[in-house]
């Protein structure tokens, strides 16, 4: 027997009176936790429920690391060309135009120079939103110029990697950047200037095979995917099952490929601590 009965039947709600929930009010983490979007932003895009680090871009990292978000961007109008006239599902030239309009970025890396905890440093930060953070000629050139600026002005250099690897649309031009950036980092080392490499989710492919793992200190955010080929490719190639947590930051730390795992809230303090220790300066 029902506990209650509808007093009136046929009640309807006018379509125009229905309230739709605006998009972007909530974020659902991979573990199923629901977080208010504003609260997530205030927490530096780290889930307060489970500590999951949501992917962010150069804009957010610069806000976190530079004092008062004050910095000068180098080579900000440098853009990629299409020397091979590459076409896959669409023309590379059209893809570049579309992604620049969508992301308001010129390419997959930005270089900023400013103060962090009162001292100048150079930060190159990749943006995964720009063709998967892929490394093409412009990415390599901007990183090289960022390192040159650090050497010329005797400043520490920080690289924040977030990339799917080399940009296939530029073929050998892209692969050349592995050697180019590695040579520049060797020059930075010869100048005895600190290089801190921060690997974020994901850091894969050619970036891992070059500058991402060449830091004086290599650090990562918790849970980041870091590797060369993806887990599926490795599994299919070797024919073996992969260990639990394979290619996560925690797995790499355990096997000696990382020096530290640093939560996003601690990045500014820790990066400057490592720089002070390398340069034998007073701890800020």
UniProtKB/TrEMBL annotation:
Subcellular location: Cytoplasm
Functional pathway: Lipid metabolism; malonyl-CoA biosynthesis; malonyl-CoA from acetyl-CoA: step 1/1
Keywords: ATP-binding, Cytoplasm, Fatty acid biosynthesis, Fatty acid metabolism, Ligase, Lipid biosynthesis, Lipid metabolism, Nucleotide-binding, Transferase
First-tier enzyme category under EC: transferase
Any GO molecular function: acetyl-CoA carboxylase activity
Keyword set includes Nucleotide-binding: yes
Domain annotation CoA carboxyltransferase N-terminal: ranges: 24-284
EC number: 2.1.3.15
Catalytic activity: N(6)-carboxybiotinyl-L-lysyl-[protein] + acetyl-CoA = N(6)-biotinyl-L-lysyl-[protein] + malonyl-CoA
Family: Belongs to the AccD/PCCB family.
Quaternary context: Acetyl-CoA carboxylase is a heterohexamer composed of biotin carboxyl carrier protein (AccB), biotin carboxylase (AccC) and two subunits each of ACCase subunit alpha (AccA) and ACCase subunit beta (AccD).
Function: Component of the acetyl coenzyme A carboxylase (ACC) complex. Biotin carboxylase (BC) catalyzes the carboxylation of biotin on its carrier protein (BCCP) and then the CO(2) group is transferred by the transcarboxylase to acetyl-CoA to form malonyl-CoA.
Name this polypeptide is given: Acetyl-coenzyme A carboxylase carboxyl transferase subunit beta
